[in-house]
Each structure stands twice: as C-alpha cells, then as structure tokens.
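Hi V.,

You were right to ask for the full record rather than a summary. Here it is.
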Amino acid sequence: MKSYLSLRETAEKWGVSERRINQYCTEGRIPGAQRVGKAWAVPADAQKPGDPRRTRRQGKAAPAKTASGGLIDQTNLMPLMNTAFAPGKCRETVEAMVPGPRRDIATAECHYFSGQAEAAAKEAEAYLTSPDMGARLSACLIYAYANLSLKRTQRAEFALGELNASLASAGEQVPEEMPQAGSFLPLLPPGLRAFALYVQAHYLYLKQEYDHSAGIVEATLAMGASAYPIPAIYLHLVAVMDYMSMKQTDRAEAHLLDAWEIARPDDLIEGFGEHHGLLGAMLEAVIKPKWPEDFKRIIDITYRFSSGWRRVHNPKTGHDVADDLTTTEFVIAMLAARDWTTAEMAEHLKISANTAKSHISEAMRKLNVQNRKDLKQYMLL
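Predicted structure:
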C-alpha cells in the first residue's frame, strides 16, 4: 500500500515551508499528491520539484524569461499545446495528467480547440487570477477567445485586459510589432515554439510574404512539429493560406488534408472555423463534399468566432463584411480580391462559371462596391 506524508512532514523532509509544499501541490508539480479535505497528502517517495531557474542546466526547457529578466514557469503554460500525443489520444492524454492546474488548463484547451467554447470559458475562468503566471496567461487567452465565440465581447475584452496587466506586472508590454524570433524562440519548449512559429508565419502572410511564410511552416513541420497536434494543425492551415494566395492549389490541398487527418480523430475543428475565410474556399472544395456534417459544424464556428472577433477588432465595417455575406459569398469574394478569374474559381469549387459570377455579383452588391478591385478593402488577404 502506498504511503503518504502530511504537508508538515513533507516540509520538514525537503527543508521548505508548508506553504511552499501547498503551492507545489496546487500547481500540480508533485505527481500523485492527493487533496484530503483542505490539506494535501504527498507520496512518501515523491521528489522535491526542481528550481525552475535551473531547468536549463538539467537539460529541460527553461522557464520563459521576460525582457525584464523575470521567469514564467512553463508547467501550466498551454500544457496541451505543448504536449505530443497521437491523433485520437487527446482526451486520454489530458486525463493522464496529475489533477491540478496543469490538467485543468489542458482540459480547457481540449474543449476550446474542439469548438466547445462554453465549457472552455467555464474551466479557464477559475484561473484568471491564479498566482501561477503560466496558468493565468493560459486562462486569459482561452477565456478571451472562447468568449469571442460566445459573443460575450465585454468578457473577452476583460480577459485580454487581464492578460496585458499580467504581462505588465512582469515588466512586459504587448509589442506593437512582431518581435524577432531569435529573441524568444530559444526560451520556449518544442510545442510552444511550434505555435510561436505559426504566429510568425501568420504575421508574414498578412504582410503578403507568402513564400517566406510557407518556408517557415515547412521547416517547422520538418523539424518535428508534427508530433504536437495543436500547433501542427495551425501550421498546416497557414500553409493552405499561403499556397492559395500563390495559386498552388495542389500544395494547399495537401496541407489541408494533413491538418484534417490530425484534427478529425479528436474533433479539433476550432482552427478550421477560425481560418475559414483565409483558406480560399478550400474547405468548400475539399471538406464539404466528403464530410458535410463536419463542414456544417466548422461553418457554425466560423460564424460565431468571426462575429465576436469583429465586435472587438472591426466594429465599424465588420457587419458589412461578414454578417451580410454567406460563407460561400465570402470565400469567393476573397478569391476575387486575390485576382482569381471567374473560370479559376469555378474550377476550384467545381461549380459553373455562371454560378461563380452570380456569387461575386451578390457579394459586391451587399458590400456596395462597383468592381472586384474594390473588394480588397474589405478582405483580410
């Protein structure tokens, strides 16, 4: 039978305060620790958690260091994103984690990335003011994005404000421009590094540096990012965006199917909904014919997420862009703004040229523009 020690006994054994032991248990840093009433029981054979400042010397990922020299313990910083697991094993991976903040945040991630915004928001809310910086930053991000999908703009803005306040308390500010990758990538563990490179690639896409963006994605996936399902899905999706912008539809389709192969076993469909308009009608061309029910759920995510996003980021023109357009009209307008011809769009979507032309005309009418060139002011290319 496994034996346990009390907080006091563990504190005496490890030479630290009972308060520190309680903190270790609460943060999920002592495997096997069990809550008993208001106290904790610690396995007698448990090892004292290492000083996070020494993890680099021990050959592990070091805590992220802020510009001001502070440290963020990465244990509870988007743990599911930073975990390698086989497709279909997402929930099993979360359930195998030791009960505590790390598992709770991972559960919120699992629910968010599978399109369950209500559950994700509820789980993240408990950690919005957590003393653990990693858990707090994760909770703020999940809570903010989940509430965007739930059209709770004020709650989303509150969470983003809390995130900024947390960074400020650590001597940081949210940068106006994307920082140089070399300044932060070496400080991140593999899964978070892969997602950071997705962010970098997305930023280059927005600057219309499609070749550069795609190159980052291909290199990141080739160096092992595929083992981390959540970052891998997002990397593949930005590659779809890049290759569609360059009219390399075969390569775009290959990346979309790779993302779908990773996502479908665990129903991790949130990213597809978030990126829908930027994927150049690839979801309509590839996913809709073979997986129509999944496509409907993805489109539902698209409507909910984009509506909340516009309320925060584009309150003046957002309604005209997406609330009035059907998803088909929106993606065709995106292609037209990228200078695709009517024939190219029709072939891509396997519809007639007249049908494609009709969708474009209706989109232009709803947006009150006179020619395709004017569509660019409404489309995030």
